[in-house]
Specification:
By secondary structure, the chain is α/β, with parallel strands linked by helices. Helix content is 34%, strand content 20%. It folds into 2 domains: 1-100, 3-Layer(aba) Sandwich (Rossmann fold), CATH 3.40.50; 107-203, Rossmann fold, CATH 3.40.50.170. Strands 3-2-1-4-5-6-7 form a 7-stranded mixed sheet, with helices on both faces. The structure holds 5-O-phosphono-beta-D-ribofuranosylamine (GRF). The site of 5-O-phosphono-beta-D-ribofuranosylamine has 15 residues, from helix 1, strand 5 and helix 6. It is an enzyme of class 2 (transferase). N(1)-(5-phospho-beta-D-ribosyl)glycinamide binds at residues 11-13.
Length: 203
């Protein structure tokens, strides 16, 4: 299977996917990395791994539809089967989400449906939650929503700051994302109506 990863920044989840896919047993190849920001650190990671990369800067387009048409063209030319959002900071339209329905996934640093959106770690510390984690889910048109493929849980510890909590969650993100992508490619995580039939523990 041919995988595209869409990023906007650091690209540590992209790196985890690249590293996992380097294993000959992994059922897919990271064939394309697209960033909407020209200076994303993740683009360097793609380059180092010898992966085709492209910047499609949303600022070059008049509207979301045109931006997404450019994304779609790049994905089609590269014959992409599945798309992973990894720190991709643009909202996608209903139309893009439905074009890629069942083949488009995202990772979010909370136990969804709790703490959607931005500044998640800060909000979790403020709320005083005792457990946190991350979620990989199919993308629907609503932000950070959609049928859940897998989750990993971490404790929130006394004295945690945004940074320490984010680091603990990120470590799990890097395990969870490749594991969920593998389930997707293998057809073990699939959409049925608006949910994902339970298959097995992801990690
Ligand atoms: C991760 O925390 C991911 O869950 C969220 O954005 C962050 C991206 O980090 N969607 P990176 O670019 O993968 O390092």
């Amino acid at each position: 299977a041919r995988i595209a990863v869409l990023i906007s920044g650091r690209g540590s989840n992209l790196q985890a996917l690249i590293d996992a896919a380097a294993n000959p047993d992994f059922p897919g190849d990271i064939a394309l990395v697209i960033s909407n920001r020209p200076n994303a650190k993740g683009l360097e990671r793609a380059q180092e791994a010898g992966i085709q990369q492209e910047t499609i800067d949303h600022k070059d387009f008049e509207n979301r539809e045109d931006f997404e048409a450019a994304l779609n063209d790049a994905l089609k030319i590269a014959k992409i089967d599945f798309v992973c959002l990894a720190g991709f900071m643009r909202l996608l339209t209903d139309s893009f989400a439905s074009d890629w329905r069942g083949r488009l996934i995202n990772i979010h640093p909370s136990l969804l449906p709790a703490f959607k959106g931005l500044h998640v770690h800060e909000r979790m510390i403020e709320a005083g939650v005792k457990v946190a984690g991350c979620t990989v889910h199919f993308v629907s048109s609503e932000v950070d929503a959609g049928p859940i493929i897998g989750q990993a849980v971490v404790p929130v510890l006394p004295g945690d700051t945004e940074e320490t909590l984010a680091a603990r969650i990120l470590e799990q993100e890097h395990l969870l994302y490749p594991a969920c992508l593998k389930l997707l490619i293998d057809g073990k995580a699939r959409l049925s109506g608006n949910s994902v039939p339970y298959t097995e523990d992801v990690i």
